[in-house]
Design goal:
Rossmann fold, 2 domains, 418 residues, single chain, 7-stranded mixed sheet, alpha/beta
Length: 418
């Protein structure tokens, strides 16, 4: 089993706001332990089923979004809660992982009333232990409005209670959330995609590739894929293919990503009437097989299956979507010498940034946030690919190892918020 590397190869962030605890009651020794709490709720009015899974607690806290999707299941929420534990542990954050879900179409006319009743039932967790956020089918605005009606200031209410001055901390967080990144978009909306881009840049650096010659193909141009494409283009990496639901746009010389992203409609698809004629228009699935050095699956889970593996020409895969690669496909890619940078590292930038903001480690200067995330992400990718190159250890296995080491180390800590 891989041990936590020394500082010359992998630097684990030491948080000045962590203190030691004398008990081990919060967290299991290993991330693969059973959930701390698993609950199925049935709405007494409509019969809608809802689920809350607290996979782990660190310092009494867990974090994870609330989603609303017709067909949502307990097993789906349980898997996502475990992945939140992996994300927080991989970045050494002093908080466990959780997730909630409602099995209902978010366009249902009573959706917000059902969400309010669900949160009412989960109020003890929201008040003291569970920090949630927007997820599939639920906006942060709707989430906060419902929580406000229940007497909770924000979705991170439980964390604010650790501050000596919750009002001051809340204002600091609100100021940080309102910070704009270069280009005018809110930092909170682009930091996740920036993290994916840094995972790609770290991959090129670790493997000794010239960035100007490192081509990238991106499946999905939402928050993660679109943001990653923008930042990679800005860094000088040629993004040669991007795919949305309408198809794949391909130019082996590199696409003008910002201009194409500006053509997205309300459904997140690029208006083809504004696309230059020289850009090739291919089926959506073509993005997986086009020549590239880095493939970013950012659209949906299990996009890379065993059937897709023979057609993949990329030299590396960086997962922006959760569970983008099936385990069997990842093994086959490894046989072909193609490493996969796992989702719980590559797409964890937004989660890490939120907790850095809560803890006062970053503020309203976007450069501070970008620099901290860049340092953290690139160090982790460098370590994973060093083990891959030297010992043929799967990057996921390396990441699981240091996430587990962090998880055990954090079991005896709790967080203080200035």
């Amino acid at each position: 089993m891989t041990t936590i590397p020394n500082s010359s190869r992998y630097e684990r962030y030491e948080d000045p706001h962590l203190t030691q605890r004398g008990d081990h009651s919060d967290s299991s020794a290993l991330i693969d332990g059973p959930p701390v709490h698993e609950q199925t709720w049935v709405d007494p009015v409509t019969g809608t089923r809802g689920f809350l899974v607290i996979h782990s607690l660190v310092g009494g806290l867990a974090t994870g979004g609330t989603r609303m999707r017709a067909g949502c299941t307990l097993s789906e929420v349980t898997d996502l809660a475990r992945r939140m534990t992996l994300k927080t542990a991989a970045f050494g954050l002093p908080v466990g992982g959780a997730k909630a879900g409602l099995d209902i179409d978010p366009h249902h006319p009573e959706a917000l009333e059902i969400l309010q009743r669900f949160f009412t039932a989960m109020l003890p967790w929201l008040d003291k232990h569970w920090v949630t956020a927007e997820d599939m089918g639920i906006s942060q605005t709707d989430l906060d409005e419902v929580l406000l009606s229940l007497g909770l200031s924000k979705s991170y209410h439980a964390a604010l209670q650790l501050s000596d001055d919750p009002d001051q901390t809340l204002q600091r967080v609100l100021n940080g959330m309102a910070t704009q990144a270069p280009g005018g978009l809110p930092l909170r909306d682009v930091i996740g995609g920036y993290g994916v881009a840094q995972a790609c840049l770290g991959t090129a650096n670790a493997l000794g590739w010239n960035l100007a010659d490192t081509t990238v193909a991106i499946q999905g141009i939402g928050t993660m894929g679109g943001g990653a494409g923008w930042f990679l283009h800005d860094a000088g990496a040629p993004v040669v293919a991007i795919a949305d639901a309408a198809g794949t746009l391909y130019d082996p010389a590199g696409l003008e990503v910002p201009a194409l992203l500006a053509l997205r409609d309300s459904y997140g698809e690029i208006d083809r009437s504004g696309v230059p004629n020289h850009i090739q228009r291919l089926p959506s699935e073509a993005v997986l097989s086009l020549p590239s050095d880095i493939l970013i699956p950012a659209a949906f889970s299990y996009a890379l299956t065993t059937e897709a593996v023979p057609h993949i020409t990329a030299r590396t895969v960086v997962e922006a979507a959760n569970s983008a690669t099936t385990p069997q496909a990842e093994e086959l890619l490894a046989v072909r010498g193609i490493p996969v940078i796992p989702d719980f590292v590559a797409n964890a930038g937004a989660a890490a940034w939120t907790w850095w903001l809560l803890r006062g480690l970053v503020g309203t200067d976007p450069d501070d946030s970008f620099q901290l995330l860049s340092n953290q992400m690139q160090a982790k990718v460098a370590f994973m690919l060093s083990e891959w190159s030297e010992s043929a250890v799967l990057p996921r296995r390396s990441a699981l190892s240091f996430a587990n080491a962090n998880h055990r180390a954090l079991a005896n800590t709790h967080m203080t918020i200035p």
